[in-house]
Amino acid sequence: MNLEDRCADVVGLIPEYSEQGDCCRIICRAADGHVYSFNDNRSVESAKRMLARCYAVDLAAQARLLQRDYHRSPPLPFYFPDGRIFVPFKLRLARIAGDASYGFIELDFVSRIIPGANGRCQLVLTAGETLPVFSHITTARLALYFGMEIKKTLIQPQPDPNQELLQAFHTLRRFLNSGSN
Fold this sequence. Notes:
The chain has four helices and nine strands, in the order βββααββββββαα. It is 31% helix and 29% strand. The chain starts with 9 loop residues before the first strand and ends with a helix. It is elongated, with a radius of gyration of 21 Å. It is α+β, with helices and mostly antiparallel strands.
């Protein structure tokens, strides 16, 4: 499978190790709701940059905006014009210094966060899969909440294409009713 052909379906970027080294498991949700995943030899950061190119999104500018407006430091969520917001979670422990630990899960693909062992937690995804999170539950919940804040303030809801037509119809009806009196 090819990430470039699945940009609109991606709901998760999970850091993993393979025989070749650092790689990324891509979780996708098809239009019919079917969830599937595949491994990509890129790192999570490379896969994230590839997705951003699909939507012509400047991740560096987006990060500066989030840092300035919310006084947050990396890792930061990222989002696309189609309304998907990807929230960072620590999804593995680094084996060597410099290994990426954070993956990104699309906000609406997270069903809930539940407590786990040793002060850690787990993500329950809408498809039923559970992912271990290697941070405290409060940290994970704050990351999810930050994604929700971004959704409320930065992602503009798509207007209903019929709303303008409906308003015109109501105006016309009022005009016709006022003329008959």
